[in-house]
Amino acid sequence: MSILLVTSSPRGAASHSTRVATDLAQKLLAADPSAKLVVHDLVANPLPHIDPDYATGIYMPAEARSQRQAEVVGVSDAVLDELFAADTIILATGFINFNISSTLKSWIDHVSRSGKTFAYGENGPKGLVTGKKVYIVLASGGIYSEGAAVQMDHAIPYLRGVLAFLGMTDVEVIRVEGVGMGADAVTAALAKATAKVDAIAAAAANADQAAAA
Ligand SMILES: Cc1cc2nc3c(=O)[nH]c(=O)nc-3n(C[C@H](O)[C@H](O)[C@H](O)COP(=O)(O)O)c2cc1C
Which parts of the sequence belong to the Flavodoxin-like fold domain (predicted)? Predict the structure, then answer.
């Protein structure tokens, strides 16, 4: 198994999403020591915003691209290689201005490639990134899974939608929510998220044992 961990918090070592997502990656590794982990920190190694050379270059045959077009499309190709090589993908993001972090949005822009990760056929759009398990770890100051602010959650519906469009429908969400509501709320949010991480890791260990038996 190969795990791709994509982190994107702008808050460095204080990030709850990075901490919980890293904990999940480590526990999945412990469940399957033969697994490989690739970490892409989108703040330390950000992807460029897509630009005119990208938006034209992706629709051209490789041999027709200018040097700059080849460079910017090459960035996307490398990110796609990371994505396709993974069986399990962990996407970690803070809830920033009611949506995902802009660095993760840039990652989405680079992995959404016509003819590579989706295609249009007689039956409409078809996602080409299949057979992946995706975990989303979302940390938010407020609570958006229930209550009055549910309609302000533009992160999880967006991610679920675009991932499904690309073929990734096996998606599980781990929320670290309400962390802006005081120290007790942070403790409770982390405990709830960690309990979910532990349940996921235990299920993965059981599945590995069953497969080996
Ligand atoms: C620039 C910025 C914008 C934020 N916007 C929101 C927001 O719209 N709603 C919210 O509930 N929390 C918001 N927060 C709080 C973050 O969601 C919270 O700090 C969360 O823990 C960030 O994830 P991280 O810990 O992985 O960095 C914002 C934080 C920052 C730094």
Answer: 1-199
